[in-house]
Amino acid sequence: MKNLHFKDFFWCPDLTSTAGYDAIIQYLNDGKRTCKEVEDFMKARASIEERYAKDLLGLSKKVCGHNEMNTLKRSLDVFKLQTEHVSLSHLQLAQSMREEVKKLEEFKEKQKEARKKIEQQMDALHKQKSSQFKKTMDSKKTYEQKCRDKEEADQNMNRNTNTNNTKLVEKLQSKAQQAKLSAEEADRLYQQNVITLGKIRDDWLKEHVNACEIFEKQSIERINFVRNTVWTHLNQLSQQCVTSDELNEEVRRSLEQCDVQEDIEHFVNLRRTGDKPAAPVVYENFYSGLRSPTGPPPSRMPPPAVRRGPLPDPTQNRDDSRHSLVQDGDYSVIQY
Questions:
Q1: Residue whose C-alpha is closest to residue 251's, from 90, 91, 77, 67
Q2: Bias regions of kind Basic and acidic residues — which residues (predicted)?
Q3: Rounded-to-integer distance, Cα 21 and Cα 204, Å
Q4: Looking at the whole model, is its pTM more than 0.70?
Q5: I need a surface site. Which of 112, 136, 257, 289 has the fewest CB within 10 A?
Q6: Cα separation, 292 vs 298, whole angstroms
């Protein structure tokens, strides 16, 4: 299929019309707007990545497993460290995005300067062409009117050729001659304007073709540049995913080394307090000081009353009894 080009499809039958050129300029302006939109989009994405990176960096500084020990603590330390590395990679991604945005800005400015020169030349030619076209059309109207005046003067002179009024004939002849000279001058001026307009048209055709080629080249470059910029942007995002996964893999490898039983044994060996439980508390009698290591604790009920025997009868005589009197020197209330 034959490639289509601007220079072949943006002409107009009306010499003063700029519809084709205006359509191309509108297309270029739309392309410029697209560049600005992509630029703003990538700036916003870079800002999001930067904020996310700063939030991740702050998160990596928070306490996580501070009191943990052994293999799980090492895994949690790696987890925090790799979170910090992920945040730094997102910060680098934001910087890379801004660099691509800067390239896009420079490209857009370069195309703007190149377009400005061409547009100024084309605007000047359009004004010159329009002005000369109007001048030519005015001279054409004058020429046609002078021709009609000449024909009318000739007809008046022909109608009065047989008259005996010499002065009238001379007057009509003079008027016809003047009309002829005016028509010839109008014809000359009209032809001159047509020739001038033709030269301006030739210059405009040449510049229009040149502008179409330059604008088509700019459009091709713009489409390629924007496409490549977005492609690079996506490559950066994909690389970030790969980097994040590699950093996360480091955490996963560390978690694989986390041994539950080893951590339990580590805690036991580090903080052990003894392998024998405390002995049971035994009852200690305040009066006897005896201990009953195995028996049940004594009852808290008061001891039972001791039954006493019958009182002795003082009227009975006991052979082995000896009574003392108060007057005795060795008197005692104790019986022996």
A1: 77
A2: 112-126, 135-153, 316-325
A3: 11
A4: yes
A5: 289
A6: 9
